Amino acid sequence: MTAENGLNSFHERNDIRLGLVGAGSVAGLYVEAAAGLPELAITAVCDVRREAAQALAAPLDARVYDDHRAMFAAGNLDAVVITSPHSLHTPMAEDAAAAGLHVLMEKPMATTVADCRRMIKVCADSGVRLAIGNLQRFVPAVRQAAEILRSGQLGRPLLITERRAVRYDPESRPAWFFDPELAGGGIMMNIGGHSIDKAQVLTGEKVVAVNARIWRRPGIAVETEASGVMELSGDIQLTFSITSTGLPPQDETEVVCENGALRLSHTGGLWMFRDGQAVHLKDRTGHDEIVTAFRDQLVDFTGSETPSVTGDYGLSVVAAVQAVYDSAADRTLQRTEY
Ligand SMILES: NC(=O)c1ccc[n+]([C@@H]2O[C@H](COP(=O)([O-])OP(=O)(O)OC[C@H]3O[C@@H](n4cnc5c(N)ncnc54)[C@H](O)[C@@H]3O)[C@@H](O)[C@H]2O)c1
């Protein structure tokens, strides 16, 4: 299908042909997620590392490319999932839109707010849909926590404490993540974006101001640690600490509300605290939960009338990350720029 067929007909199709740009680690999750969806097929895979594209494409019987423009020009595709290094996101979205292909863009949407705006405009002008891979709302435990908060049973959210620790050094992930030009930033851009997304999804609010600091470890060109305070609309405060020392990894979120609290934990699952009682609502399910999130994201992208994670939403996350960098550089409180 090309854009002339209109956005609305896309979600009614049951033979959607997807192309993958980038055949690295996250692309493997899309392959796993798509395997459970008979209505769509991955029919082409592109990577500058042709052997990586070949390895992913072979069991799918998909075509292999090492140039995304050649893949787009060959036709036979309805949509693309772009999982390339961050600074390539905007030019690749422009190429996809020019070819009439719908775009599911991995997070972070782009490395600057200006690039996010360009991507939104070019997709709108070309009549293709744009969805962003900020997938926290599709993670089952986050979804359940957001529903509880939305129900009002705990009262208004007041403050969030967010703690992430992951290994973040050149031995732990591909080299481009440590190249400021390609990655657009370090741990805050890559991991911190999930924290911002999660806080926004849980509360239904947006980050409006940031006071933060970042640090780089010797010999690494991007920041490896970030901490600070964010204010969300609705007068909610988020305190975050995202560090690179984490082995074992940590991923803990606490939301304190007027009448109770929720805690989401990578190891402990979902807990609710109310009236002096602690109730365990959900175990963590690890890899299965991640694949479920990717699958539901694909269903939302291809199967709903309008994707849930719009370009404007992706921009809001990039704007909050940018505000962290501006705040750290100027040592001032920064308002987010929408
Ligand atoms: N949603 C999530 O939970 C999640 C998890 C991991 C990564 N990501 C995001 O997914 C994207 C990819 O991350 P990754 O961990 O898979 O990285 P990766 O390095 O494993 O994969 C990226 C791939 O892109 C390829 N590539 C580079 N330049 C290219 C070009 N010009 N054309 C085609 N392919 C090209 C690389 O060779 C590599 O195979 C990033 O945006 C990252 O932030 C999201």
Structure commentary:
This is Gfo/Idh/MocA family oxidoreductase. Keywords: Oxidoreductase. Pfam families: GFO_IDH_MocA (PF01408), GFO_IDH_MocA_C3 (PF22725). InterPro entries: Gfo/Idh/MocA-like_OxRdtase_N (IPR000683), Gfo/Idh/MocA_oxidrdct_glycsds (IPR050463), GFO_IDH_MocA-like_dom (IPR055170), NAD(P)-bd_dom_sf (IPR036291). It comes from Kribbella antibiotica. The chain is α/β, with parallel strands linked by helices and 338 residues long. The chain folds into two domains: 3-132, Rossmann fold, CATH 3.40.50; 136-285 and 307-335, Dihydrodipicolinate Reductase, domain 2. It is built from eleven helices and 15 strands. The chain has helices spanning 7-10, 25-34, 50-57, 68-73, 89-98, 113-126, 140-151, 180-183, 187-203, 287-303, 311-330, and strands at residues 16-21, 40-46, 63-65, 79-82, 102-105, 130-132, 157-167, 207-215, 225-232, 236-243, 245-257, 260-265, 269-274, 277-282, 334-335. The strands form two sheets. A nine-stranded mixed β-sheet has the order 14-13-12-11-7-10-9-8-15, covered by helices on one side. Strand 12 and strand 13 form a beta hairpin. The protein is globular. The relative contact order is 0.15. Residues 1-5 have low confidence and may be disordered.
Outline of the structure:
By secondary structure, the chain is an alpha/beta fold. The chain is 36% helix and 28% strand. Strand 5, helix 6 (113-126) and strand 6 (130-132) form a beta-alpha-beta unit.
Tally the helices.
11
Strand order of the largest sheet: 14-13-12-11-7-10-9-8-15
Task: Give the topology string: H per helix, E per strand.
Answer: HEHEHEHEHEHEHEHHEEEEEEEHHE
Q: What is the residue-averaged pLDDT?
A: 95
Shape: globular
Q: Regarding CATH, which class of the largest domain?
A: Alpha Beta
Radius of gyration, Cα only, in angstroms?
Answer: 20 Å
Please tell me the CATH architecture of the largest domain by its name: 2-Layer Sandwich
Number of E-type strands: 15
The computed structural class is alpha/beta
Report how far the terminal alpha carbons are from each other.
33 Å
Low-confidence residue ranges: 1-5
* Helical coverage, percent range: 25-40%
Strand content: 25-35%
Number of domain modules:
2
Task: List cofactors, ions and other ligands.
Answer: nicotinamide-adenine-dinucleotide
- Classify the fold: give the CATH topology of the largest domain: Dihydrodipicolinate Reductase, domain 2
The largest pleated sheet is described as:
9 strands, mixed
Give the CATH superfamily of the largest domain: Dihydrodipicolinate Reductase, domain 2
